[in-house]
Amino acid sequence: MEPSTDIGATPRPTSAPLPVVPAACSGTLGQYLARRLVDIGVHDVFSVPGDFNLTLLDHLIAEPELNLIGCCNELNAGYAADGYARARGVGACVVTFTVGGLSVLNAIAGACSENLPVICIVGGPNSNDYGTNRILHHTIGSPDFSQELRCFQTVTCYQAVVNNLEDGHELIDTAISTALKESKPVYISISCNLPAIPHPTFGRDPVPFFLEPKVSNPLGLEAAVEATAAFLNKAVKPVLVGGPKLRVAKAQKAFVELADASGYPLAVMPSGKGMVPEHHPHFIGTYWGAVSTSFCGEIVESADAYVFAGPIFNDYSSVGYSLLIKKEKAIIVEPNRVTIGNGPSFCWVFMGDFLSALAKKLKKNSTGMENYRRIFVPPGMPLKAQKDEPLRVNVLFKHIQDIVTPETAIIAETGDSWFNCQKLRLPENCGYEFQMQYGSIGWSVGATLGYAQGAKDKRVIACIGDGSFQVTAQDISTMIRCGQNTIIFLINNGGYTIEVEIHDGPYNVIKNWDYTGLVDAIHNGEGKCWTTKVRTEEDLTEAIAKATGEHKDSLCFIEVFVHKDDTSKELLEWGSRVSAANSRPPNPQ
Fold it and tell me: For the chain, how big is the Rg over CA atoms in Å?
């Protein structure tokens, strides 16, 4: 579907009363929206109440298959919808007009950057107030109500302003279907006086959604496959690299099919971790330029041909634009386009179709894997800690690795956890999420709430730095209220460590909190929550044993004290290169 430019309906004349149709023959707008959310697989909606959305929330609560989860603030509600979308394929949040909408905006921008379909619903002004020159509360004092809408236009793929009943069902359906097709957030504003009013268009049982599958241009697909196969079949040591857009293209299975058929080494970009099976016999690790998994970077950058499936090359993923990748050797597979070297490029060729068809045309070539096995040396173990020695970060993650199973999922907060979690080896079916493109600190608290709610068959393990936690800590409360049994490792090193390694200054030092004391106060004896402080390896071993044993059904909050300069070697390298990229002087005029 082409992106829509329709941003709402024409305001109704204020003098005409809204029609009321007997409920026996129709449903209400609120019921219709609730059923539509259930239809697409949303069973939990994250919300913050406000006077413009209260009636709508009543109707969402009344839907038996929908669970309304109240969050402590709109930012975390948006982050939770982001995490839920990662677990379930689509998420939703409900906030109030402008004060709520602008608060959730940052989270929606992050979901947009990560290609996540999030339905952001806002309770809007009374339909009679549109076009009246009235000034309303929750605004900036202007009679123009479009400020919020204009903000959302840049971070959503469709915006619907529902301020009359006649076309409400069409606007809602178009918004939701566009979110699913484009895999991007959408914005739906619903006037506060409309949710409870029946209308004939809101049938009690809405017609199920049918999203027409996207089909590649057959001639373009054939040409792209033939050209790519010719390119790769003459290469000596080609490699495959999976990127984050494998998710939006729904092409993970096709990518594995290609890896099986080709015999090429299989790597993953850092933001694609979790989308490529690490138990695959050809998996060689994370390709991240100078901070790649040992021996992985050498194999990728020395290859004479590389297939990048769904990559995002930004300053972070390219380590300050320092990748040793040559365009003429690369095949870049986007969700709907394939480019071979410096050209040609084939449009309207979809990634899943292309990878599956290519798998049937490639000759098996194990040269890259043979080279990898020749140079590979197994990773070493951290130095054994002495009794009562302060805990080191590498020792912490050695123990976290031991509790990573197919029944767990990892959430890595922006910061040094990016690099430490990247080194965890994921078993089959283990989830893994982080927000690399947008990199908003504090994202992981809300995202952990949403992911855990959407993936109740997993126990979430969240690794969060103290600086990030201070941004969004409140919704630990919601995790406890929802009965989640997440394990949170709060890494207390006294500041914004990732920013220290890019550019240090006094602003990177934060006020230390009693983090377990804070969580105990939030717990307040209601629900299941267990906290502890860890300073040594002995403390950590005991804490993990309790978290996975007697407290396995509780939210477990483990505050880990480490030295402020104890970082991964990858962060040290990455930080210096990103710093160099940030500090480039202006080009000569």
Answer: 25
Give the three-class secondary structure for 46. Answer: strand
Distance CA 19, CA 109 (A): 37
Residue 97 neighbours by CB distance under 10 Å = 25
Give the residues across from 338 on adjacent strands: 333, 346
What is the tens place of the pLDDT at every residue in 431-479?
999 999 999 999 999 999 999 999 999 999 999 999 999 999 999 999 9
Can you tell me the distance from the alpha carbon of 478 to that of 486, in angstroms, rounded to the nearest whole number?
12
Helix residue spans in 89-212 (DSSP H): 99-113, 147-153, 168-182
User: Token pair for residue 100?
Assistant: 């709520």
Token pair 């026996």 is found at 24
Closest to 101 in 3D by CA, of 55, 156, 60: 156
- The string of DSSP codes covering 297-315 is HHHHHT-S-EEEES----T
pLDDT at position 204 is: 65
CA 411, 414, 418, 421 torsion-angle sign: negative
pLDDT (tens digit per residue) in 141-176: 888 888 999 999 999 999 999 999 999 999 999 999
Q: Per residue, what are the HEC states of 410-477?
A: EEECCCHHHHHHHCCCCCCCCEEEECCCCCCCCHHHHHHHHHHHHCCCCEEEEEEEHHHHHHHHHHHH
> How far is CA 27 from each of CA 39, 104, 398, rounded to the nearest angstrom?
16, 29, 56
Tell me the C-alpha distance between 195 and 162, whole Å: 10
Q: How many CB atoms lie within 10 A of CB 545?
A: 12
- Kindly report whether the global pTM for this prediction surpasses the value 0.90: yes
